């Protein structure tokens, strides 16, 4: 991993000494400022310094104190994933887009149950933070059924614990959140009644979202943050066969099988985003894609200049500020 330039530390110190302390683990100034903001927001002032120092010592457990006071925890089995700002940013933005599309933002509460509930599958759910955020945001306005799936039993336990910690457990006719253990590459789990309920609506699955393992074996050794290498299971970062794109091919196949109307996949770089877009455009459903976008780290914050890439002759807008972080597809 390249060393950070000293000038960056000086710049960070001028903006916020606390954020400067977080630079070695966060790697860039916007992330350091964001994490420092969370720590400030959620920690009593006398404990603040302790929080920053703990995070600066690369303990990712600390960063979980945020929006829904979500999702960290070394589980009983010490299995854990770092909570990062990007999934929160794109999940919130996705929820907003879905509500706008459903007319949900203006929808009067008595109309809530008149429209069919949205169905959401979060593949490779990990801590469950994406599933939880979408569920929490959407159920305020529309009916919604969310299922998170993951291969690791520890992840499923962690996601369920996080649902309880955030008061998001329990089901009703028009809202439910569940977690199912499965290997995404097998087909057995598609017959699970909870998954079936998502896929067998009149219109198919509404949303397939995923933050899958997407780092190559080489990238993991050379570029992955130290805190991730130390604390996270490698299974969460690197696909077993070492091919960084293998999950996206499977996810595109699942999107077609489940008739997913909207998909959002986190990616590791703009180059990977372009490869995912290329695979989507050349797949069976490529012609039916009415929206194809790359979302940057903060999709809701406009970049100083409009950006785009061209893939298979189609201009793909890059929405928001920061690095290319996820691929958004919507079909007819
Ligand atoms: C990058 S992490 C997901 C992080 C999650 N979005 C979060 O923020 O907590 C990737 C997840 O994929 C899961 N995973 C790895 N291989 C899998 C497979 N074959 N099927 C299902 N899940 C898998 C890992 O257990 C891990 O929880």
TrEMBL record:
Residues 117-170 form the Methyltransferase domain. It comes from the Eukaryota. It holds the Pfam family Methyltransf_31. One of its GO terms (molecular function) is methyltransferase activity. GO terms for cellular component: mitochondrion. One of its GO terms (biological process) is methylation. PANTHER family: HEMK METHYLTRANSFERASE (PTHR18895), MTRF1L RELEASE FACTOR GLUTAMINE METHYLTRANSFERASE (PTHR18895:SF74). This is Methyltransferase domain-containing protein. The lineage of its organism: Eukaryota, Fungi, Dikarya, Ascomycota, Pezizomycotina.
